[in-house]
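Could you help me review a protein record that somebody else here produced? This is what I was given.
***
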Amino acid sequence: MEKINKMVVAVLFGGRSVEHDISIITGVQVLNALDKKKFEVLPIYISKQNEWFFSENFFDIKIFSQFEPTKQCKKVCLGQNRNLFFNKGKKQKLFKQLDFAFLALHGGLGENGSVQGLLEMCDVPYSSPNVFGSGVCMNKLATKFVCKALDIKVVNFKEVFERDYINNFDLKENFKNLNFPLIVKPNNLGSSIGISFCENETELKNALSFAFLFDKEVLVEEAVTNLRELNLAILGNRFSCEMSSIEEVKIEKNFLTFENKYYGGGKGMESQKRIIPAEIDENTQKTIVEYGKKIFSSLGLKGCVRIDFLLDDSTKQVYLNEINTIPGSMANYLFKGKYSFSILLERMMNYAMIEREVDKKKIVRFSSSVLEKLSEKTTNERKSDSKKLF
């Protein structure tokens, strides 16, 4: 019987981020959804100290409730040519050569382009958007500036930098163009961590101090009245993409809190009270799809990306809120009528590999005589200087 060579697929999760625990949930879901008949699946847990570990036990989420690296865990690191090494005493030994990496990292260094850059340096194709797209989408302020340039509506906002806030910051002057109630958010964070709803200056001041515990940049936005939260997932790459159903997430407060998201059944966003498809009019649906396609294409995104929208139900105005380049549970619940989780992951892989094959055909090396001529010029100048001495 002919032996089938399986693709070696690593799933990276955990990481140095306040969303570390949420990343573990997504990571374990991906690990168990990947088809083991087709892929050799390697669970790679990244600790809060940025140490990388491998263990076959990582398929069971229970191990992480009181997890500490043990002798059963291999400490691993990624090197050139897609090689994954593990530490053996003071030496490193080749463990596996990776064919692909699924990023199940939320927030922090995992979603902002840092890990994506490492994977590119090591020539490992991966599931999420590239360094540029990941960085822009992780930065809420940058996302809003891009949206404004693309004529995509966003709520009125104001950015605040910590360096300015600690130096005689005048609340009234800086927020004179915004109307209460306001939402305060750390600029580079997700999972609703560090977010506050403010109805007056005292609450605003407290919210800013709280948000600066998580980030050096903070975003202050006008809250949408008659709010409805609508989400759209887009699956694809820079050449083609496909839309999920649009969902409405039912919220009990002024925004979806961390507790709302993750204490409602243990499956992150998948466990939320939702209406799929959302009960919205044709114009609202058209606007959401149009905005989604425009931002996905303009930023050259890939993988499965969830875009969150705000709808003012009284005016029917749609605002793009945030872009999640590595959504919780990979937003698989939005494709349930179309793909199983396993097939969704395979399609993410296919889209990434298609883009990689195109990129590999681009010229990345260029030979020139610049260094040779510079060396020759330097040698001549030295000879000229030595003659002047005599």
The chain has twelve helices and 16 strands. The domain at 136-141+144-150+225-360 is CATH 3.30.470.20 (D-amino Acid Aminotransferase; Chain A, domain 1). The chain has three domains: 7-127, 136-141+144-150+225-360, 156-222. The chain has a mean pLDDT of 89.
